[in-house]
Amino acid sequence: MKAAGILALIVCLVASTESKVYTRCKLAKIFSRAGLDNYAGFSLGNWVCMAYYESGYNTTAQTVLDDGSIDYGIFQINSFTWCRYAKLQEKNHCHVACSALITDDLTDAIICAKKIVKETQGMNYWQGWKKHCEGKDLSEWKKGCEVS
Ligand SMILES: *[C@@H]1O[C@H](CO)[C@@H](O)[C@H](O)[C@H]1NC(C)=O
Q: Domain Glycosyl hydrolases family 22 (GH22), which positions (predicted)?
């Protein structure tokens, strides 16, 4: 009973946080500062393009998949392997609560995305990237933005 009440409260708090949609250049700047440009050999354009096709730059984007797992946040990181949404959950490779991946502060999401790239050896984890960004000229994605 108590647990259910707390859970309901958490759900309410999560649901009431406003969704934030970053602009392309703001995101490019954040990614650049966080060292994503050329991280594991992937230029900034790859990251900005990927985030666009995964979440539309929406930090609170959540997608429930057929298997019941949930993709979280700007990089649509999945709860089954990468973050913790239930108390006793084994995988959680990023050692982070899934709720931390849907905040305006992208620190945790970026750390987790870096881990995914390292552990899965590339950006193939992201279908949106594979479909729309891989192998393309991605210079347009940082065009007009104040990033080097
Ligand atoms: C961002 O995602 C949340 C959660 O899916 C949704 O409620 C909200 O409408 C989205 N915002 C925009 C601007 O699309």
A: 94-112
> What was the pLDDT predicted at 13?
47
Atom of ligand 1 nearest to the CA of 63: 5
Q: Please give the torsion angle defined by the CA atoms of residues 120, 126, 129 and 130, in that order, rounded to the nearest 10 degrees.
A: 70
- On whether residue 46 sits in a domain, the answer given is yes
Say how many domains are in the chain: 1
Give CA–CA dist 107/83, Å, rounded. Answer: 14
Domain assignment present for 7: no
- Find out whether 146 and 29 touch, Cβ atoms under 8 Å: yes
pTM of the prediction? 0.86
- The CATH number covering residue 61 comes to 1.10.530.10
H or E stretch at 119 = helix 107-120
Residues in the chain: 148
Catalytic residues: 54, 71
Rounded mean pLDDT of 109-127?
97
1 within a domain of the structure (yes/no) = no
Verify whether ligand 1 is closer than 6 Å to residue 123 (CB atom).
no
Of the candidates 62, 45, 49, 47, the residue with the CA atom closest to the CA atom of residue 114: 47
57 pocket-lining for ligand 1 (C-beta < 6 Å): no
